Amino acid sequence: MKLNAYIAFKGDCEKAIHFYKDVFDGEITEFMRYSDAPEDAFKYPDTAKDLVMHATLVFNDCRLFASDNIGDQMTIGNNFSLSFNADDEAQAQSVFSSLQDKGGQIIMPFETVFWGGKFGMLVDCFGIQWMVSCNE
Questions:
Q1: Whole-angstrom Cα distance, residue 86 to residue 134?
Q2: What's the CA gap between 27 and 58, in Å, rounded?
Q3: Residues paired with residue 26 on neighbouring β-strands, in sequence order
Q4: What H or E segment, with its residue span, contains residue 56?
C-alpha cells in the first residue's frame, strides 16, 4: 500500500508539473486532459477541456499527483488530497468506509472508474480530503 500527495491547481497544473519535473529531475508518467475522458464519463465546463485532469510525476521513489480544479470550492490551502492506493479492492473499500464513518462526506462514491480499477473521494470528519483507489 502507498500514500501519495495530490495537489490541485487553478488552471496552471501543466506549467507546475513541468516545473516540478525539472526541480526533481523526474519523469511525467501520466498526463490526461479533461478532453481525454470519454464524453459520457462526467460533465465539465467547455473552458476546462484543455486543463489537466490528472498528471503523475515520478522521481526517486516518490510519486506526485496533480490536476486542475474545475470547481469553485478550491482555495490555496485546501488544494490537496491524500491519495491512498490499496493493495486490493477489499482493503480499499474498508479504508473508504472507515474514513466515511463518524461524519465523513462523500465527494465521489467508491466505484468502478473508466481509467481502470475503483476510485472514490471523500472528506473525513477532520476536514481532510482523501482519494482511495485500487487497481483492477
A1: 5
A2: 5
A3: none
A4: strand 52-59
Which residue carries 502507498 as its cell?
A: 2
Q: How far apart are CA 127 and CA 99, in angstroms?
A: 11
Q: Are strands 80-85 and 129-134 parallel, antiparallel or unpaired?
A: parallel
Residue pair 57/26 in contact by the 8 Å Cβ criterion:
yes
Q: How far is CA 125 from CA 30, 57, 120, 131, in A?
A: 31, 29, 16, 15
Residue 58 identity (one-letter amino acid): V
Contact 90, 110 (CB under 8 A): no
Exposed, middle or buried by CB within 10 Å (0-12, 13-18, 19+), for 74? middle
Note whether 58 and 52 are within 8 A (CB): no
Closest CA relative to residue 41, chosen from 92, 93, 115, 105: 115
Over residues 60-80, the pLDDT tens digits come to: 888 999 999 987 777 776 778
Its pTM stands at: 0.73
